[in-house]
Each structure stands twice: as structure tokens, then as C-alpha cells.
Amino acid sequence: MLVRGLQEAGPCPTRQGFIDSLRAVDDYDAGGLIPSTDFEEDFGKLNECYAFIRVNAAGDGFDVVDPNYCGTRLTA
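The structure assignment produced for this chain is given below.
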């Protein structure tokens, strides 16, 4: 997320520019490792689904174990 936020913020990012630019991202998926996330729509909410990944046997990449391990949000 840090790298994506810096890419979106442009060549001379400020703290606020970084935050605003990252919140505007609506398709973050960590290079295909996790389900797509919309930072503006999902801001302040717990995820319903998480991806479980592990380092591969060669130690040079990742394997997705379960891309959508899901639950439901509880309301108080």
C-alpha cells in the first residue's frame, strides 16, 4: 500500500497528498494477492474477506492459499 500511495501521490508527495491519493484507489489488490479493495468505500470498516498467502518453497515468491476466506461484519 505504501508504494501504491506514493505512486498515486505524484513526484513530490505531501502527507495529505499521499493520504488523499491512496484513499482514491478503488482497485488495490497487492499485485493479485488479495481481493480488490476500495480504500474510500471501505475506510474505517473491517474487511469481510481476507486472503491467506505463504512464501513458496523456493523462497522467491508467494502462493495464495485461500483468496477469499470470508465472514460477516457484526454490528453493535
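Interim note for the steering committee: The longest strand covers residues 62-70. Residues 2-70 form one domain.
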